[in-house]
Design brief:
With 207 residues, the protein is α+β, with helices and mostly antiparallel strands. The protein is built from 6 helices and 9 strands; from the N terminus they run ββαββαββααββαβα. It is globular and about 45 Å long. The two termini are 12 Å apart. The relative contact order is 0.21. The chain binds adenosine-5'-triphosphate and magnesium ion. Adenosine-5'-triphosphate binds next to α2 and α4.
């Protein structure tokens, strides 16, 4: 998988993500909101890839929260990084599952997973993308109360220190496992209900 990073307006990325998911949240009866400071520093990210991470986390938060619950996307910055939070009032994640949450094909066998269509790849792919950005991703959760997923991406100045290269196409960072040719990319952020498409893309990339 190649990263094509460029200085990116994070507030805009978050706004687009929420706009994409409002219909799905509305259908499910889950209240979706965005809270962010007026000013956020620019971050150095591959907008297409990082939008996939936000989409995975929002799709999960909505899927694993019952109607009447809420999901809030928020962000705050320090000198080095922007931390984004996806907080839900869902079923929560048992402590015993948390260490395996970001591994391939892992799903909790709870009520809301039964009969749902997930493949257990969303968080695995998300972690791979965040790792490539030299960021961190983690979760805090309380059973029956809800979960908050956090991830960080570097602000432009700090990214230079971290050697998240500001890559032109020909010098993009190459990561062997998730190879996908740049021509397959869509210029728009990943749309709302992408679980099946995402899985297909993942396997296509791997072959
Ligand atoms: N916000 C959440 N609240 C409760 N459980 C969650 C949440 N996010 C993820 N999980 C649990 O973690 C598991 C793994 O999530 P992941 O996104 O990797 O896979 P998935 O949603 O099952 O399938 P997909 O590959 O379509 O995303 C889920 O099956 C679910 O059990
Ligand atoms: Mg998922």
């Amino acid at each position: 998988m190649r990263l094509e990073v460029e200085p990116t307006d994070w507030g805009q990325v978050l706004g687009e993500a929420v706009a994409n998911f409002l219909p799905l949240a509305g259908e499910k009866g889950v209240h979706l909101s965005l809270r962010k400071p007026e000013e956020l520093p620019k971050v150095l990210v591959d907008k297409f890839r990082i939008s996939e991470v936000i989409s995975n986390l929002l799709a999960n938060a909505i899927a694993y929260t019952r109607p009447g619950g809420s999901v809030e996307l928020s962000a705050q910055a320090d000198d080095l990084e922007v931390t984004t939070q996806i907080k839900d009032t869902g079923q929560g994640i048992p402590e015993s599952a948390r260490s395996r949450l970001f591994t391939k094909f892992f799903r909790v066998s709870g009520v809301l997973e039964q009969g749902s269509k997930g493949t257990g790849l969303g968080l695995y792919i998300s972690k791979a993308i965040i790792d490539m950005h030299k960021g961190k991703i983690w979760v805090e959760s309380s059973l029956g109360v809800g979960s908050t997923f956090f991830f960080t991406v570097p602000v432009v100045e700090a990214a230079k220190e971290l050697k998240v290269v500001e890559a032109k196409k020909e010098e993009a960072i190459a990561v062997p496992e998730l190879a996908q040719p740049a021509v397959e990319r869509s210029p728009t952020p990943v749309a709302a209900n992408t679980a099946n498409k995402k899985t297909k893309r993942f396997f296509k990339r791997k072959s």
